[in-house]
Amino acid sequence: MSAWKDNQEIEFFREYLRIPSVHPDIDYEPCVEFLKRQAIDLGLPIEVFYCAGPTKPVVVITWVGQRPDLPTIILNSHMDVVPVFPEKWTYPPFSAHMDDQGRIYARGSQDMKCVGMQYLAAIRALRKNGVTLKRTIHMTFVPDEEVGGNEGMRVFVKSKEFKKLNVGFSLDEGIASPDETFPVYYAERSIWHVKFILTGTAGHGSLLLENTVGEKFLKFFNKVMEFRQHEVQRLESDTSLTIGDVTTINLTCLNGGVQSNVVPPTLEAVLDIRLALSINHDAFAQQLSQWCEEAGGGIKIEYKQKQPKVEATKIDNFNPFWTAFKQASTELGLKIKTLVFPGGTDSRYIRQAGIPAIGFSPMNHTPVLLHDHDEFLQADVYLKGIEYYKKIIPAVTNV
Ligand code: ZN
């Protein structure tokens, strides 16, 4: 039990957790400063790029391999965390309090400061053991993943600095697992946020007017719910499917109306849609338009977000990085489960650039608490994760 008491890696992790890099308006400089000290401790070069302006640093710590000419490996993590409701927490969310069971409470303890620090810890140990690796490793620490990565990984991937890294494979975040298995993610659904602006006959609330927004909304929404129910049934009837394998569709905003006795001329509804990998995007967009027509027309569609289809990372024998990852996890005795990620991560930008990417956070026997109150990670789970990376990182790097 004492492994995590007075453990230097645990202390580094807690120090990083205490930096309140929390949305909105994050000051990333304390993270940069912390990582600079880490780079010094590791004896590795560090660079900071500002692709999206002076408040959005991308930190890259590099370990040059024996064959720097080969495509490199990135070990990616994001520095930002989601907001907290401190009154709902047992311990202050940026105190990194460790209780007598070794549970470390902090926003970011699971999502995903743990993974970023585990990469550093594993590499510190490998270097101490005098290990040399074939390919070059870049540990990247990016901003703004939790707000979609628009000023983070999305622009970084398109930058000349990124091209220079000559990346061949990426590891990034996954999710904790309450049982013994380890989820490993090879793809993501495409996120669409669509606003529907319904227009109809306005007038007095005492009449039976035709073509009101209320009627249109009901007709339109029935179509949406019919489709949704179909996906619910598909998921329930096939135990091999998980939420990432089906299309989810949810009403997230509904706005309109001026006064109780006035039929309004407009009504706005927003849907959050996550398209399964099997969906044809053009056909689906067509379907949405058709539903609007069938509901009576006069409905304008605005795409707030319309992510393109991104090819899944191949998890077969033709992807040598995958084979190496899989073999290392088998040798470690890890029970891995390959899945489509239910939400969105920075891996989508990496995959979009044609680079294979795997999402993996080594946290089993851990309740899923990302974005939740009392987010915590058990110290011994954290330390075990470092051991796993000490095998997985060399495996993918020596491909
Ligand atoms: Zn995350």
Write the layout of secondary structure elements.
Blueprint: H1 8-17, H2 29-42, E1 46-49, E2 58-63, E3 72-78, E4 97-98, E5 103-105, H3 113-128, E6 137-142, H4 153-158, H5 160-165, E7 167-172, E8 182-188, E9 190-199, E10 203-204, H6 213-237, E11 248-256, E12 262-263, E13 266-275, H7 281-294, E14 299-306, H8 320-331, E15 336-341, H9 347-352, E16 357-359, E17 376-378, H10 379-397
Parallel strand pairs: 3-6, 3-7, 7-16, 8-15
Antiparallel strand pairs: 1-2, 2-6, 4-5, 5-17, 9-13, 9-14, 10-12, 11-13
Zinc ion binds next to loops.
Would you kindly provide a written description of the structure presented here, covering whatever features stand out?
This protein has helices spanning 8-17, 29-42, 113-128, 153-158, 160-165, 213-237, 281-294, 320-331, 347-352, 379-397, and strands spanning 46-49, 58-63, 72-78, 97-98, 103-105, 137-142, 167-172, 182-188, 190-199, 203-204, 248-256, 262-263, 266-275, 299-306, 336-341, 357-359, 376-378. It is an alpha/beta fold and 399 residues long. The strands form five sheets. Strands 1-2-6-3-7-16 form a six-stranded mixed beta sheet. The protein has a four-stranded antiparallel beta sheet with strand order 11-13-9-14, covered by helices on one side. Helix 1 runs antiparallel to helix 3 and helix 3 packs across helix 10 (379-397). The chain is elongated. 39% of the residues are buried. The model has no long low-confidence stretch (mean pLDDT 96). The site of zinc ion (ZN) has 5 residues, from loops.
